[in-house]
Amino acid sequence: MKLEKYSDKILEQLQLGKPLTRIAKEKDMPGLSTIYKWMRDDKDFSEQVTEARRTGAQTWLDTAMEILDREDIPPQQMQLVREKLHHIRFVASKLISLYSDKQEIKQTGDSSLTIKWEMPNLPSSEQQRTVTGTQVGVQKLDATKVQNN
């Protein structure tokens, strides 16, 4: 089976909100494992499928709005309708960043951090020798312990 023959129909069905598992079960369509293989082998097709799924999630939200506008839902079906609407909302929050619970913060510009400190009552040259001397002294002490053993 060739990807070119089926890709448009697969993407169209996904955009209409049809799950890929249901598309793969249709008589004239390739199997699910074949579609996944095409997605692994062709990054462009994989990105198109992801975008089509996002559009499909928006289609589900539109359908959910239509369901909410209906007033003829029998009381015994309300729990099922409520669960379907929760599922649609959940999937949309994962596929469409606009409806996500997470915030995305992008860092622009310089991200370096400079830390400065001063030691009181010492001239700046003495501060430098004190800090350097402490580090060197610790290193010498460790080296002496190793040599004595």
Annotation field: number of helices: 6
Radius of gyration: 31 Å
Order of helices and strands: HHHHHH
Terminal CA distance: 73 Å
Structural class of the secondary elements?
A: mainly alpha
The 3D shape can be described as flat
Instruction: Tell me what the CATH architecture of the largest domain is.
Output: Orthogonal Bundle
- The percent of residues in helical segments reads 55-70%
CATH superfamily of the largest domain: Homeodomain-like
> Beta fraction of the residues?
under 5%
Weakly predicted, low-confidence segments: 130-149
CATH level 1 name of the largest domain: Mainly Alpha
Mean pLDDT: 78
* Number of strand elements: 0
From the 3D structure, determine the CATH topology of the largest domain: Arc Repressor Mutant, subunit A
How many distinct domains? 2
- Strand count, sense and closure of the main sheet? none
